[in-house]
Amino acid sequence: MGKLREPLNDLAACGLPSALDVMGERWSFMILRAAFNHVRHFEEFLEELGIARNILSNRLSRLVDHGILKREHCADDRRRIEYRLTDKGRDLLPAMLALRQWGEKYGCTVPNIPVLCDERDGRPIAPIAIHAADGRVLAPSELTWRERSEVDAMERRQSIAAA
């Protein structure tokens, strides 16, 4: 990945620690997985996940506080609350799928059933990969770190050239 490295001792300069602060434990991912599967109500999460009530309450609150889920009153019964994914929560889907695919490849001895497929053609989704801006799939050996100022300058030059 080139000669330049991430400043590994500066956790504030990386989004990974802050993401892990929000999502870095099993139940948060399982709740998010359930939300992607249209589970909406507290009791449904309890039943589907087999999670303790106090842990579920804590994790739902945390996901709401971080803007991953939002609480809404049900249209048909204003006393009931639904938990719905926000745009920020939906943006976690590629990370969730990458982790799932990694777990299927290295941690599971049986294939996952059901299989996540493209609605249009019915075929299984492709493995999550790192793509270049032009769409090419990149291997780890094709990646490099650059200073933000260098990247910003390069992007300015490219936008001027394209205009």
What can you see in these coordinates?
The protein has 163 residues and is mainly α. Helix content is 45%, strand content 9%. Strand 3 and strand 4 (137-138) form a beta hairpin. 7% of the residues are buried.
How would the blueprint of this fold be written?
Blueprint: H1 15-23, H2 26-36, H3 42-49, H4 53-65, E1 69-73, E2 81-85, H5 87-90, H6 93-106, E3 130-131, E4 137-138, H7 148-162
Antiparallel strand pairs: 1-2, 3-4
- In percent, how helical is the residue content? 40-55%
Counted beta strands = 4
Radius of gyration: 20 Å
Catalogue the unreliable spans.
Answer: none
What's the CATH topology label?
Arc Repressor Mutant, subunit A
What spatial form do the alpha-carbon principal axes imply? globular
Mean pLDDT: 89
Number of domains: 1
> Topology as H/E string?
HHHHEEHHEEH
| Quaternary structure annotation | single chain
Determine the structural class based on helices, strands and strand pairing.
mainly alpha
In a few lines, what is going on in this structure?
With about 160 residues, the chain is mostly helical. It has seven helices and four strands.
